[in-house]
Amino acid sequence: MEEYEKFAEAGKIAGEALKEGIKWVREGIRYREVAEKIEEYIKARGAMPAFPVNISVNNIAAHFTPSQSCMDVFKKGDVVKIDVGAHINGCIGDTAKTVEIGTKKYAKLIEAAEEALRAAIDSIKAGIKIGEIGEIIEEKIKEYGFTPIKNLHGHSLERYKLHAGLSIPNFKNKSKVELKEGQIVAIEPFATDGLGMVVDAGLGNIYRIEKDSIMARELKKRFNGLPFAERWLYEIYGEKVPFKLSFLLKRRIIAPYFKLIEAKGGMVSQAEHTLFITKEGCEILTEIK
Predict the structure, then answer these.
(1) Does the annotation mark 78 as catalytic?
(2) DSSP notation for 261-288
């Protein structure tokens, strides 16, 4: 029960941080400013970021956070996905939302992901097969005339494990794996007007520890195996960050997350909540009324 309460509190903080962060996404504002404000909000609430705030714009689907030197600003017409994670002693809340800046050209695409998430949540309870969840998501997205991204998934969450082994598809498959009472999962539909697949497209400024090494001791102590941002390393290494990153990457002590873009350049929307699975349904840990 104590662990559940920490997951619930982390979910609440993540949800509130996302709600606040969305307000800061405006034309002319720098990506990095928004990411850092959200991360500072999480810390001020007594939690820590579970991963760097992901800011994925237009055809970028996931795994991008602004670097220390990033000067990119939001532009009118941008479709912006903000993905936020907070943790309390490793108990994680993970949530995401998409907004369009100053236009409504992609309102239906954004609605497709949101409604797919809602349809999945309405059907989820202990015993549902994950293939059935994928079918519900796929059908709802297709109702809007769009395509789910098939190689991005929802996932189970455990203490200090952002992806804890169970992948929950965004399309119909034959998996008979069932959700269990007491599990914590993130349901994460992605919708696109493109092909429905993502591909690697260079560094996303996010890293993880790949192997145990004395040279990664400080990183392990600070991040406990969770993903970390290039810009966070300036608190540890100062201006030596480029050298340290190169050193650790070459020795495969750390590994990068690659920015993921839609394979045909399609626009992408995302919606996500963290759920606690119950016998009769689920509790949405990241929903803020």
Answers:
(1) no
(2) EETT---EEE-BEEEEE-SSSEEETT--
